[in-house]
Structures are given as C-alpha cells and as structure tokens.
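Exercise 7 asks you to align residues with tokens for two separate proteins.
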Amino acid sequence: MTRIRRLRDGRGSILVMTVGVLAVLAVMALSYVTVVRIDRRSTDAYQRDENLQQQVVVATSWIRALLAADLFGNRMVNANTPRTLSGGDSNLPRAFEDGEYADTPWTDLDPRNPGNTLTGVPYTWNTAFATPGNPNPAPPLNAQLDPTGQNNSIPDRAAPGDAWLASTQPIDTGQSSNDGAEWDTWPQISNLLSAYRYRNTSQFIGWARDSGR
C-alpha cells in the first residue's frame, strides 16, 4: 500500500509540475506577443513621425524659397534652375526686378495679359493641367515670362504683388445675408503656389507661374 501511495503521489507531483510548466510557457508566449505588438506599434508611430517631420521640412523649405523669390521678381530658383541660357544670357533673377519694394497682401492680375474669357479679368495663373495623355502641358502665354525680352507678346518680368501674404483681418463687404455689418470676408489668404519657376519639359522650356491652387 505504501508503494502504491508513493507512485500516486509521484504521478500527482509530475502532473502539477507539468501544469506549472505549461502555465509558465503560456505566460511567456503572451508576454512575447505583447512585446511584439508594442514594438510594432512603436515602429509604426516612429515611421509616421518621420513622415510628418519630412513633410514639415518640405513645407518650410518651400515657404523659405517663396519668401526669397519675393525679393527677386517672384522667380523661385532651385538647384535645377540653369544659371545661364543657351545664348549666354543670365537666367537668374535680379533683386526687386518687378519694381516691388514693400509687402502688401494683394494679387496683381497683370493688365498686360489678355483677359479671362469667363470673367473678363486678366490672370497670370498656369491653367494648363496635366492629363493622362499630356502629363506636361505647356503653360498658356499668360503664365509665361520672357526675361530676355525677345518675345514682345510675353512679359519680361512679373507684375508686382504679394499673393503669398495674407490679410491680417477680414472686412465688411456689406453683402452679408444677415444684418450687413459682419466682417466675414478676407480680402486675401496666403497662396503658396504663386511664384514663377523654371521648367524644362518636352512641351515647354522657360519660366512659368504656378497654378495658384
């Protein structure tokens, strides 16, 4: 009887140890899965933060270039802008070549260019948008610049204006549907796509303004 009891006690101890080992393994597996999930989330969060930081750098770099362009005839220069043209003429803008020496939030719709057929108002925005069949369309003459002055139908400098600058406060136009005394209209908001950039594509080579939108 004593021997049988010892065998039963031994079997019971082994069973308890087995259950304990399985419980420890289960806890270890659960801990591993939890750590992996946390690590994965941390990696995703880090990647998102990196992407956001890159977007911030791109945006601030663009704004700095736009502010610099305001001092040089609203022409934005980057590393891909050629310093000279094929004839040897300089392709770089001159300081204050548009004749603007003060910053005021306004957009000059260049009267030297033809009017918009829809509104009758002159415009200089690049209205040529890419399509699947024409990914690099040539900008209209209204949006082009000819700094060399060789083409009389194209302005040789940008009209003065500060489309990048926003108004500091709204105004009352008197056209409100309420009592007519609400200041609910902003004369101008910042337009970060308002500079002229040098383009070299299969359809166009030269200076052209951005779309403004």
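Second protein for Exercise 7:
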Amino acid sequence: MSYYLECKSPPSISNSTQTSDKPRLLDQVRNVIRCKHYSIRTEHSYLDWIKRYILFHNKKHPQDMDEEHISAFLSHLAVMKKVASSTQNQALCAIVFLYRDVLKKDLGEFQNLIRAKKPEKLPVVFTQEETKQVLLQLNGVHWLMGQLKREYKMIIKCCRSGFYFMKKQFSASLRLRAKIAVGFV
C-alpha cells in the first residue's frame, strides 16, 4: 500500500504478457496526474491530447521528439483543424505536462509556432443611444414591450427594494400580452 502514499507506480505483475517492469507511457501519465490530485476530467483531456500528439507523429515516442515536433502539432491544430485558441492552449498544457512532469525533460522555446486566433469580443450591453435606436424601429405592441422592458431595467437600477413586486407586475404584463396575441382575452 505504500506505493499509493508515495505516488510511485504500482508493482508490476509477473505475467508472461508483460515484457518490462516499467509501466507504459499513458499509465505513467495517469499515475502522475492522480498523484497531483488533478480532476478526472483533466486526466481524460490530457490523455486524449497526448494520444493525438503521438498519433500525429506516427506513433513516435515523445522522448525522441523535441520542441519542433510540438510546434508542428500545435500549428497543425491552428491551421488545418482551425481550433479555438483555448483548445490549442489546452493541448499545449497537456504536452508540457507530459514532458515536464512525466518524462522530466526540459523544453526550450517553441519556434515557428502558429497560435490560433482569439475571437473578437463583442459588446454584451447596448449603450443608451443604441437602445433608443432599436426602440425607434419597433411599432405597436413590440414597441410597448420594449419600452416596458427598458423602464423595468431602469427602475430596478434605481430602487432595489421593490424588485419582487415589479418583477411580478412585469411578468403579469407579459402573460397578458401573450393572451391578447393568442386571443384568449
């Protein structure tokens, strides 16, 4: 039981099918991840990215590869697979973990690495002028609902104490509008 506490690999089973005492690479990765108490989702993700990395280089052992191979794989993800920057970063973290923590191999600089583009951030909230422009385009019931929604938001900002009452009144007006549109009133 001491191998669990000391985070060493479990003793090998003397079986004719096993050729060496050293665990396979992915078993080593799994063992180190568990010793560091990473989440199970991280374990699955890292193992998947390491498998993809090895398969990309025709099952060549990572010990025999260097920074150029890593750059080629990550650039392939960005250019050919068109992955998001966060996806490429996750793959990079998995590979760095493999080399730094499992293989104990120091990595240098990544030359010629093509990074995936980060998406352009779009504004989440309209300005007051943009809101006015949208409301000017609405007619009839849609204009009324837009005005109610706008006024509701402004009142909530001004007076937090009446929040529940106003929310209830606004919800009631929406239900009434739905009933009028369907023809129940």
